[in-house]
Design goal:
Elements lengths: L8 E5 L15 E3 L2 E2 H12 L5 E4 L10 E3 L8 H8 L8 E6 L9 H7 L5 E5 L5 E9 H8 L17 E5 L11 H17 L1
Parallel strand pairs: 1-4, 1-6, 4-5, 7-9
Antiparallel strand pairs: 2-3, 6-8, 7-8
Length: 198
Amino acid sequence: MSESLRPARVVVLAGGGSRRLGHDKLAATLGRGVTVLDALLAGVRDALPFVQMSAVGPHRTTTQPVTWVREDPPGGGPVAGLAAGLVGLDDDDVVLVLAGDQPFVGPALPLLLEALGEADAAIGVDPSGADQPLTGCYRVGPLRRAVGADPAGRSVRSLLTALTVVRVALSVQASLDVDTAADLARARDVTQVRGQTT
């Protein structure tokens, strides 16, 4: 990976309401006491050992060092979370943006960084062909301009129209996000299989 494509920060959006699961999905355990969020953070650390990690949302105890910040207003949505996560970064920096409910996304991060090239963003595409902008690598300047001065309530997908985007195919595991009880069961199955093969 070239020096110019080393991310200045990984921003994990961790402020969702977990309405479909009915309880805090990031605190749900996958096995051996490992939470969804801890699995994601550990995967990031494995892929990018020295990267700075920030999480946007209410503070949770984690097994990995992470800086917690809050979106303005709290509960203002993912674009407001992005705005908070970009504070302190320079426009020429590169940032990885992840949803906090993707426990196995780590191996996709180097692929996103390598794919960025001259584009404003490299985002994941899941096996169904759907864009996953919260599995993405972004240049901070274009992203900050797309976020704008009033980010609350906006969708992340709305940002893509202002950016040049390349797309990267994600594996089934990398694209697994824990939204429902069935998703959580699948994530636990993956964790169990991994535990048996390590």
